[in-house]
Amino acid sequence: MRGRHRSSYLGLLLLVSQLYQLGLENIPPITLAMLGLNAYLFLFPAAPLMKACVSVHQAYWSGEWRRLLLSPFHHADDMHLYFNMVSFVMKGIRLERRLGSVWFAYVLAVFSLLTGALYLALEAGLTQLTEDQSYSSACAVGFSGVIFALKVLSNHYHPGGVTYVMGFPVSNRYASWVELVLIHITAPGTSLIGHLAGILVGLLYTTGPLKKMMKMGAGELENFFLRYFDIPVKVPVGFGNSSKCNHDFDFSFSRSLEMLYAKEERLMCRTARYGAARFAAPPPYGFRLTDEELRARRLMRLDGFM
């Protein structure tokens, strides 16, 4: 959102109330830490709002690239913070539990920088196309661009469902686009380009090359920590090449994690080859097994593949 003057602390009180009802113990650590960072920088900003917002003029022409770091975590007023953080917490809980805390923190860091960078590129492109300098001077601030990117991820991992936008059910596939338009119509002061940049970053992750590049970067980070600090970095299981259902596995991460990935790869490949029922967890006590399930379990015990 573009800069506005702060009005009151009502938004903070509403945010505290929402968190109390939700329970801090129900919020995963990275989501909670990011929430705390945004609230802290609202109360004790690292820079005045007009020196934290990002625009083509300030970041590119004036060389103030630190605005890319500052702008996502500063908010125009307390209600801006409230709406952004409530939306973020709901998405963060689902995504952090699915992706794992370390990978989710990595996603947040990349999305925060990339959303700002793409915002600058879009604004610069519009300036060139329209010859209107107002696009280059539009200064944006707030976490909403990153939230739109996370919304794309959340909808990607929960396909086929619906999201209620202003009380109307909208397919998850189109929910981000519908919200983009409605927010711009109902709140003209918001940054349409900033929100669009977030959607595009989310799509680059779910359907484009960004996720692959991040995996490669995670491998280099893992090697760095092992080389200089002897500290393995925990990353999500299953990042090996699952399409290679043989023993020729290709790993981009360090050797310390290779055996873990290989074990996971072999399990996935054998599940695909012989059927999921054979490798499923035992049923609760008292369940009756069919003859086919009993035969599959006997064969599994005889195989001894793990």
TrEMBL record:
Gene Ontology cellular component list: membrane
Classification via Gene3D superfamilies: Rhomboid-like
Primary location class: membrane
Residue span, Peptidase S54 rhomboid domain: 63-207
Highest taxon of the lineage: Eukaryota
Keyword Membrane included in the entry's annotation: yes
Membrane topology according to the record: Multi-pass membrane protein
The UniProt record lists the keyword Transmembrane helix: yes
Transmembrane segments: 39-60, 103-122, 174-206
Protein localization: Membrane
Pfam families reported in the protein's UniProt record: Rhomboid
InterPro entries: Peptidase_S54_rhomboid_dom (IPR022764), Rhomboid-like_sf (IPR035952)
GO molecular-function terms, A-Z: serine-type endopeptidase activity
Keywords assigned: Membrane, Transmembrane, Transmembrane helix
Entry protein name: Rhomboid domain containing 1
Organism per entry: Hippocampus comes
Phylogenetic classification of the source organism: Eukaryota, Metazoa, Chordata, Craniata, Vertebrata
